[in-house]
């Protein structure tokens, strides 16, 4: 066995008009596949699979191994955090937690939008549980909440390849489209239930 690119959890054109089939073909089929291919070339144990990915990330002493393993994890998580007809607001436990920790859904959305839109350079904007409450954080390059003892609940990929085909240099417009039309709140709820 080896690491494998997980299939998208929806058809390649299912996120339109927010993200085009062309963006998904390039982002999933080229960028994410490249991380998987490089990871397989770097790993010492060819029996290692996606089930072992977090252990590989935590144990990686080599920067290239870490970068490719973490980017494989980050992207796999990102795809699950979107769904056709998504966005809007959450319900139940997620809505309650957002109200408790941010004061309102509007404040949460504004904070996540701001941090994702203004993050300098390549990276990720995250909704995480830090062990006591929900927080919004950003990471650079391949960094991820796992390294900071945080539980990832949702992420927005803010590397330019995530949005450039559809939004050019307008990252804030991409973030708005993600929040308003793509967030998979059921996925967020599943992750929160694991805390």
Task: Please explain how this structure is put together.
There is one protein chain. The protein contains eight helices and three strands. The protein is mostly helical and 195 residues long. It has a three-stranded antiparallel beta sheet with strand order 2-1-3, sandwiched between helices. Strand 1 and strand 2 form a beta hairpin. The longest helix is centred in the N-terminal third of the chain and has 22 residues, at 21-42.
Secondary structure layout plus pairing:
Elements: H1 21-42, H2 53-59, H3 63-80, H4 92-102, H5 105-118, E1 123-129, E2 134-140, E3 151-157, H6 164-167, H7 171-181, H8 185-193
Antiparallel strand pairs: 1-2, 1-3
Quick overview:
The chain is mainly alpha-helical and 195 residues long.
Strand order of the largest sheet: 2-1-3
Main sheet characteristics: 3 strands, antiparallel
Q: Return the string of H and E elements.
A: HHHHHEEEHHH
What is the CATH topology descriptor of the largest domain?
A: minor pseudopilin epsh fold
Described by its quaternary structure, the protein is: single chain
Q: Overall pLDDT, averaged? A: 97
Which residues form runs of ≥5 with pLDDT under 50? none
Radius of gyration: 16 Å
User: Helical proportion?
Assistant: 40-55%
Strand runs, count: 3
Counted up, domains total 2
Distance between the termini: 30 Å
């Amino acid at each position: 066995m080896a690491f494998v690119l997980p299939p998208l959890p929806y058809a390649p054109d299912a996120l339109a008009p927010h993200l085009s089939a062309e963006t998904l073909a390039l982002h999933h089929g080229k960028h994410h596949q490249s991380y998987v291919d490089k990871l397989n070339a770097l790993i010492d144990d060819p029996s290692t699979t996606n089930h072992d990915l977090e252990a590989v990330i935590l144990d990686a002493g080599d920067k290239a191994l870490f970068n490719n393993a973490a980017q494989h994890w980050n992207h796999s998580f990102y795809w699950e955090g979107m769904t056709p007809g998504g966005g809007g607001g959450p319900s139940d436990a997620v809505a309650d937690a957002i109200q408790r920790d941010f004061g309102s859904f509007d404040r949460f959305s504004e904070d996540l939008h701001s941090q994702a839109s203004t993050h300098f350079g390549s990276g990720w904007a995250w909704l995480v549980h830090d062990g006591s409450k929900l927080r919004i954080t950003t990471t650079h390059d391949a960094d991820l909440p796992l390294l900071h003892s945080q539980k990832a609940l949702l992420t927005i990929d803010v590397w330019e390849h995530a949005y450039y085909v559809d939004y050019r240099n307008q990252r804030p417009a991409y973030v708005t489209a993600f929040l308003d039309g793509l967030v998979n709140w059921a996925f967020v709820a599943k992750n929160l239930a694991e805390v």
